[in-house]
Amino acid sequence: MEPWPATPEELEAVQRKLASEAPPPWRSGSVRSVAGCFVCFPRGYGGAGVAGDPGWAAAAWVLDGKLAAVVTVGGKADAAYEPGLLGLREGPLLESAVRALPGSPEVLIVNATGRDHPRRAGLALHMGVRLGLVTVGVTDRPLLAEGPLPLDERGAASPLSIGGELIGYWVRTRRGTRPLAVHAAWRTDPEAAVAVVLATTGASRTPEPLREARRAAREMRSGSPSRSGT
Known about the structure:
The chain is an alpha+beta fold.
């Protein structure tokens, strides 16, 4: 496997190429094997983050509704945070965590955008290509897309679009909480992405594989020194 792009120019070229590809769409009658991945960085300092920040990534695999495996990896961010170029900062750590799982999930939920991106190829889509997995993006808010919020009931959804192009949905996974932005990514269209999220979300607002990965990454961070050493 080739290394991740090392510069913004390299990443943008890869993103444009990926956006132009048309892989066979994924369809499944049931969602049995789903993983989630999440990466976090030190808390307690100003700014969005710089190159060299320590990072803690985790992947969690849910099989037939039960947590099958959780893995964590540590490392350093290769780049500062910049919207639209998240792969430079988070991609290698997230890929390492998913590859450390003891098996291969059918679908991967990534805390990043997919088609909701300046070049229509966010990190959730890029991860799918790198790993050869069907992917869905889940974020707290869209990057560029816009759309009205859905009704306040579980399962309610409303479209997120860029210039008339449907790229995802707002999805209410739990009544009384803010909806999630659910993104079409690698081999998924917006409807398939919504189906995955609703099938893997229980009592919590966040899909279980992503929630478990987030918990594990943050627990790993809590046992590590911050960037400032305090």
